[in-house]
Each structure stands twice: as structure tokens, then as C-alpha cells.
Amino acid sequence: MKLPDKTVPMAEAVARVQDGATVMLGGFGVPGTPFLLIQELLRQGARDLTIVKNDANETGMGVDHLLAEGRVAKLITTHIGLNARAIEMMNDGRIEVEFCAQGILAERIRAGGAGLQAIVTDIGLDTELANGKAKVEVDGKPAMIETALRADAAFIHAAKADPFGNLGYAATARNFNPLMAMAADLVIAEAETVLPLGGLTPDEVHTPGPFVDHVVELAELSEEYDIVRR
Amino acid sequence: MSGAKERMVARAAREIRPGMVVNLGIGLPTRVVNHLAADMPVCLHTENGLSGIGPTLPIDQADRNLIDAGGAYVSTVPGSAFFDSAASFALVRSGRLDMTMLGAFEVAQNGDLANWKIPGRFSPGAGGAIELAQKARRVLVLSTHTDRKGNPKLIENCTLPLTARGCVDRIFTDMAVIDVTPEGFALREIAEGLTLDDVIKATGAPLTLPEGEIPVF
Description:
Chain A is an alpha/beta fold. Chain A is 20% helix and 27% strand. In chain A, strands 1, 2, 3, 4, 8, 9, 10 and 11 form an eight-stranded mixed beta sheet that branches. In chain A, strands 5-7-6 form a three-stranded antiparallel beta sheet.
């Protein structure tokens, strides 16, 4: 039996993302950010997006292009301190920003990917992040409900893929990618290398292929993937 | 960095014991690593998915895929592991993190910590700080004793939005080592060249004093 081939041209995959979509973007800083998929989304013009991403990259990189072009309505994130534009747009009310504790953002996405509706946690209970969230008691201890997150689309950056969509990540470029790859209706993975089926051994697979809809091979990486010289 | 700050960082490094799993927050805490002996058996953790952080690399030797949560290009050591963000915080929340060292805007005498938001001025989001502060087994703060205007950071009650309640165990500043106890702040050590009066004046809450001579660092 042969596994299906999910490789497609990037433009064809990204064209499925509609205006108003919720889009998850992998990455923590530069590593694992799908810069070229973001560039294609920018080129195709989708707007009124809700973006789910750990951070807002830095000014002039990644998600910042979408912010600069006014394509983002809402950002669900943990920390935007390296992007002055994101902070300014939040302060001016040009984008809505929902902050999450970092591990809780990860768990909300993981829950969404696992077919669960919410998680229950005491993280942030004593902070303003608890405002407006339903409070519960578990075994006599206070907690709150954090709803699961799913997206219309997830953009994933993998170091290696095979045509079926089995993915492997490099070093700290893993971060949110394997979680987001399970939590969207349309999962598009860009890969630095696409190996033939069997090129990734079963033990090397970090994200199993059944979660992935499209595999896009990157002919070459753009400058944005490079080391940041500060 | 001033001599007093450097001594503070060196003093904080002595809290790290063999066998620990430790997370060093962004800023001053990251510098603690420079004061750890190369053969110290300790596992450094970073939120973006690495246990076993090795030395920071010069830019020409950096791996574009290998950073710490502060964006520094780090390395691995024999035995390092990579994992996703859910596993990274599972480690934090489940009690596997023996110690974290964090920065602070304010610490209250009951151990409340505010270090992520100054309304109207600085509001970038808390990143992983809430989970680190709330769930690490021991929470140490590294901070200047006062803010840039000279106002005390160690105070009776936090005025800024909290990161976590009652979480801080010990504070290292450029002036003193102070514990948070059920009776409030307790002075443990004092920086070289300072008087007790200097420390009391720069602290915004009562200080319990040790009996006998105060150790100097």
C-alpha cells in the first residue's frame, strides 16, 4: 500500500485561506516561523485575520508584514515585546490583542487538536488574565476554564517532510509547530527538505502525516530565516 | 554592569545546587550562567523547548534554529533534549523545575510579584513568567533594589498588575539578599560597602534584621 502524495504549489495551498479566517502560525521568534507561507498569505491579500502566534516576530519580519498591511484584526499571543508596531497598534485600538500565559496558549491549542473543548487550570488565577473566565473548583481548589483553540488554517515550518505530510522539526524550531499542526481544519506545512516516502523513519516523525493537508517544498529560504544580527 | 550588580549575580549563582533543573529568566538572571562552574551538574531549561542549555555562541558559530527564550543563540551539551511548548510548560507546571530566577518591577512583603505590565507604558504580555512564578519550586528574584528614579521595588503591597501571588522566596539586589518570610522581608546579607541604614532607606517595607553581624557579599 502506498501513502498519498500531498505536495502542492504554495499558491494553491494558501489560496484556501479566506478573509476573516483564524490562522495559527508556528514559531518562537525566528525558529519555526513559516516566513514564506506568511509572505504568500500577504501576497494573496486575505484580510480581517485572527492570528494565533506565540509572539509578533520583530518589526519587519514574519507576522509584522501582515500587521503593517492592516490584514490582522486580532492577535492571540503571549508576548509582543520585540515588535513596537504590534504594541502601538494594540494601544491605538487598531488590533485586538488577547494575551495568554505561554504554556496555557500551548495547552489550549493542544486541547483543540485533541478534540477537547477546554482545559481547567489555576495558572493566572490571581492575575488580570483571569478576568471574564469561568471559575470552577476541582478537588476543593480554585481553578478556571480556558477554552480550547482551533483555527481555520495552521501554517507550519518543518525542517523535513515526506509527501504524505510526516514532519520533523529542527532544534528549538519545534516550539508551537507540532501543536498547531493538530489544531486546524487546514494544515499547510512548508518544509526545507521533502524526502521520498520512507526518507523519514517512523521514529523520526514528530507530526504524523494524517494531521497535515498540504506539503509545500521550499526551493530556498528567504533572508528572514537567517540569524538575526542585533 | 556595575560591580555591585555583578556581585549580586555571582551571589545568586551560589543558590544553584548540583542536580537541579533551573530556568533563568530574561535579563539579569541570564547572566547567572557566567558564574556557574563548568563542571557543575545542573540542567538549565528554557521555555522555547530545550533542556540542557550550553554556552551562548558567537554569531559566526550560531545555529539559526537554536535560541533560548530571550533570543540568544545558545548551544547544546551532551544529553540535551528538544521538545515542544506544551512539554516545556508541563515540566514547569508539574513541579519538575527546582528553581527559577526572574526580574521584577515590584515585590511585596508577602511575596507577590509584579514583573510583566506597567499599565499605559509597558504591556508586552507575560510570556512564560506567570507559570514560572506560580509553579517553580523556588522562585528567586534578581533586580536592582530601586527603580531608575530611586523608588523602592520592595514594598508593602504591589501597585502593578500581579504576575503571581505569594510566589517569591528570596530576592537578590545590588544592595542586599532578602528572604520573604511569614513575617515579611528578612534581611540576610548586605552588599559590600553599604550600611544597614542605606538598605533600610531604600526598602519600602519593614525589614527583619538578623541577630549578630550581617554577612557581606
